Amino acid sequence: MQSVDQLDALREQVQQWRDDKRSIAFVPTMGNLHQGHLSLVRRAQELADKVIVSVFVNPLQFDDKNDLSAYPRTLVADIEKLESVASDLVFTPTADTVYPNGMDEQTVITVPSMDNKLCGQARPGHFDGVATVVAKLFNMVQADFAVFGEKDYQQLLLIRKMVSDLNIPITIIAGETYREKNGLAMSSRNQYLNAKQRDIAAALYQNLLSIKNKLEQGDEDFLALEKYAVKSLHESGFVPDYVDIRRADDLERAEKGDKSLRILVAARLGNARLIDNIACNLA
Ligand code: PAF
Description:
Structural class: alpha/beta
Radius of gyration: 19 Å
Shape: globular
Helix content: 40-55%
Order of helices and strands: EHEHEHHEHHHEHEHHEEE
Number of domains: 2
CATH class of the largest domain: Alpha Beta
Largest sheet: 6 strands, parallel
CATH topology of the largest domain: Rossmann fold
Bound molecules: pantoate
Number of helices: 10
Strand order of the largest sheet: 1-4-3-2-5-6
Strand content: 15-25%
């Protein structure tokens, strides 16, 4: 696997692959890789001849500077993991490469109606930072496909909308959420949990499944279902941020009669803010 930290070297390799008529799939990450990321790399390998993974902890998307400095940087281990799944190239730019003119005057992309709800409310500016860095990385890498995990469902829809609104020539592919045996969605943030909290954290997924089950049985009192789940998470030791039943395509509040739904949760447990979601398609 090639490891590249300069834009010129990246462009040169991409151009060579293009000349050789190779298709390219891209998996953007912030490093601290786990099985969930590796499953996205495998998905990317199914789509294209060559796979590029970026590892860049993007300062622009951290609303909390302590969170940014505490974010685990594990590049050596990340590279080993990417080698183990035969990724073709890892791009590891520094902040100076991504933001050569600094961040204060950086042109910023806002994706309206996707940036200000759910996680956007709790993390002001976060989604502008995500959209901006992803657009920049797309322009740097110039891949045919990019794979984003469904665990960050709001981020996935935000990127899809940005790509559509700005006519960016790339196809966005969703990668399934990779779960621990107890159902806990894999996340870099799980490492902030101790063993007992990891067991408790399984309740997030259990709550999502229980809501889905009730919806499928015809329960349409969305508010009551959400409230019940919030209460049950509180009782398990979480500080819930939201449990919401939304329309799957635009994340607006679901109403009676809506069929394609997404149930989303965000909650704090100890030092970790965890998120998860599942699809619910009513007949
Ligand atoms: O999901 C992530 O890890 C990040 O938000 C992303 C998409 C790599 C942008 O920094």
